[in-house]
Amino acid sequence: ISKPVDPEGLYKTLIRWLPVTEIAFPARAVNTEVIPAGVLAISGLDAPSGLIRLDGHLGTYLKLLRLFAIDHRDDMKRLRAYFHRGDPAGAARIVHTLKGLCGTLAATRMQATAGELESAIRKGRHRDDIESLATALEMESDLLMAAILAALPVDDAMPYDSEIDWTMVQQILVELEPLLKEGNMRANDLLETHLALLRAALGTLGIELEQRVEHFHYAEAQEIIECAREKHTQLVTS
């Protein structure tokens, strides 16, 4: 079962590996031709800016977009549940998380509305004002997430139809481990490149490894690699 993105872990990873000058939006040549046309056409999403914020890692950017649309589609229901329980602080935390993710992905329109709603909640503005902003955010969220999933449908890795090269599998895991330990997002790129081989070699553990790395649960991914070494004698080094 896929686990949701850990926002705190994701933010720490992004903050650590984004360029130091990211906040100033540095001039960086981004080939917009590599961004799928469907993504470029999404209203309220500045995909080139989002790619810059992820230092040009297109695969990671597209995966984050898809995860955002899947894992946060019920956030507005959770927000309203907090209001009904009389917990505006809890509602503000959800909006704050959405605002941060939208900022990372360059979902500018939704980010702006989330910022207005968070401010209204924290300042204790009239309930009608808050409800109006919440309704606007919910509509923008529904439209954005539907557009993302339409442009980036969930797809599976191509099957691996060659004989498994266990030496290569071991080399991939050796390269992957320090990246996971450092919280380096290049771990996602490395895994995606060799996903078909790792799935074929490791079976269910390969799928679990994919899910942990995909959702930035890097510590758990390291544990799965250890389990894989215990299960597959071909990975035991002398």
Care to describe what's here?
The chain has 238 residues and is mainly alpha-helical. It is elongated. Helix 5 (75-84) runs antiparallel to helix 6. It is 68% helix and 0% strand.
Write the SSE topology.
Blueprint: H1 7-17, H2 37-40, H3 47-53, H4 58-71, H5 75-84, H6 88-105, H7 108-122, H8 127-151, H9 166-182, H10 186-193, H11 195-202, H12 204-214, H13 218-231
Describe the structure using short key phrases.
about 240 residues; mainly alpha; 13 helices
Molecular shape: elongated
Mean pLDDT: 83
Number of helices, counting only DSSP H or I runs of 4 residues or more: 13
**Biggest sheet character:** none
Give a brief rundown of this model:
It is built from 13 helices and no strands.
